[in-house]
């Protein structure tokens, strides 16, 4: 009889939901994976990305041993197996050499969200601080939206999405939860069953929009103008809560004057949403008992993204929705958990004046465009840098440098591995204990692992402890156990008072963050004034507009330099079966996602002589890729959609979508502008293969792909 055990874990993916999972293990192998029905938020549901995750644990291409490159860098690179001792000795030797010749700032760590576990995601910080390496500003996900929320609400907080079940009017703004945030769908459905109306506001008609009661298409990067138009109507028609405004907000009179500049007619001119529709949206929102806005993080991935977030966050305050049961707004919950990460990361060990490189600008750093010491050693861990970082062409050119020594710690053979000198095998979450917070709900979670690491895989935590030993770092932090570190991170007065300790987490498996999650602002806002700030003196001191505003995109159709050029606004939303590039290596995920396509409106396709299924070259100022075309009215005129991040090795022309994106930074928070792209689309034709990988040739591909 086979031995069968079940282990409770937490999903490690870069997703707001942080699901609690139950893994069935038989004879040391994960044989089943299901949701944990006992978790208060995720309630036993899991998405298709996690449902097929065993394809990654047991992928034929899983990296199981340390390797050293033999031969040239780039696609098709060859490797030979080496021991851990050889691999780590080589990495340590190159770090010593780089520090001696060019200074420690010539060493750059690059990491992001391959795991969201607190311990392993941040395991390299203290090592690189102690080394004196360049610091990495990790801004790819929530930096801009947090900046917008900080300026308005004071922190990355919002009303718990579970409260949507008691709302009577829900706006899903710039989010596609059927693909990216599925655990809020039961709360939305519960509200609908009691008569709530659900409206989706987004740049194209996606899966969630097709399920909603109403869909409002808005031009990319213009959401602030729509929110301002709605607020204009609310104030004009008296659909506001003056008592709440007087008690809990700052700067209403200044906002009221600003709103005079945004009548529905101006909102229509900017957003493409008819003035009558702006008025309808505002009236329905203002007359609702408890309206709830769920914003998506994608709103912040425009050059004006933080201002978009800030502006929409003002909307609930006008009607007092933040204080209403079932009402309010949510985007992220990162401000809720109160961990002592500094005790773990040791930022004080980094020498004063050490440079910081934004992860958005890694392409510039690797090609010398930022100035300062040249990057000579690159250490990449839990980040598919070559596929996911903006301006992938620049990143690739940097990775190809013969004088750059690159170490990659990875689970699968990603594009980044092709450029590595040393490759280290990493474990999956099933093999690697950790604890978790969330940015989409308010629970801590614990993962004590389910199976031993496959092959010779070692966690980030182990790798950096071993490297510290080789470099002679004697601080006791590098010798402490994993759970000792966890206990220190959780050891804060606020968490102790709430009974949140490692021991309690081990006993109960998940614990709620210590705050009023239904209304985190019941006792005031964590802003300088203690109120929601329509007018932000902090922004004014930064030289920014202190009031909500629509800021036209420089790389957008409102810029006169681009007027009349027939350019498309290219947006790159998530795929349904992948999370960023995670899932690219899974057979079922690849099959489920199907061919990556360019989605265009029929009129845009006709004007450019483009036909369904044919290869189309999409070009921006950064580069170009070729994708087969899907013609659909789900995409408005003037907009182009390419869903999902594919590694170059899984792209039809050997180029991923981030060939098209820029290293520009958002207005606040220094985040990426993944969705701010002006693009041309033309038949691939004679241009096939002019840039990048092999041409996309052959017969037209059948039109089987649905709007994601």
Structural summary, described in words:
- With 708 residues, the chain is of the alpha/beta class.
- The protein folds into three domains: 215 residues, 3-Layer(aba) Sandwich (Rossmann fold); 205 residues, Dimethylsulfoxide Reductase, domain 2, CATH 3.40.228.10; 128 residues, Barwin-like endoglucanases (Beta Barrel), CATH 2.40.40.
- The chain is built from 26 helices and 27 strands.
- Helix 9 links the parallel strand 9 and strand 10.
- It starts with a strand and ends in a 25-residue tail after the last strand.
- How would the global form be characterised? globular
Biggest β-sheet: strands ordered side by side in the sheet: 5-4-17-16-15-6
What is the CATH topology classification name of the largest domain? Rossmann fold
Low-confidence stretches: 688-707
Given the helix and strand composition, which structural class is it? alpha/beta
- The Rg value, from CA coordinates, equals 25 Å
- Helix count from the secondary structure assignment: 26
For the secondary structure, the number of strands is 27
What percentage of the residues does DSSP assign to strands (E)? 15-25%
Instruction: Give the count of structural domains.
Output: 3
For the record, what CATH class of the largest domain applies?
Answer: Alpha Beta
Gross CATH architecture of the largest domain: 3-Layer(aba) Sandwich
The oligomeric state is: single chain
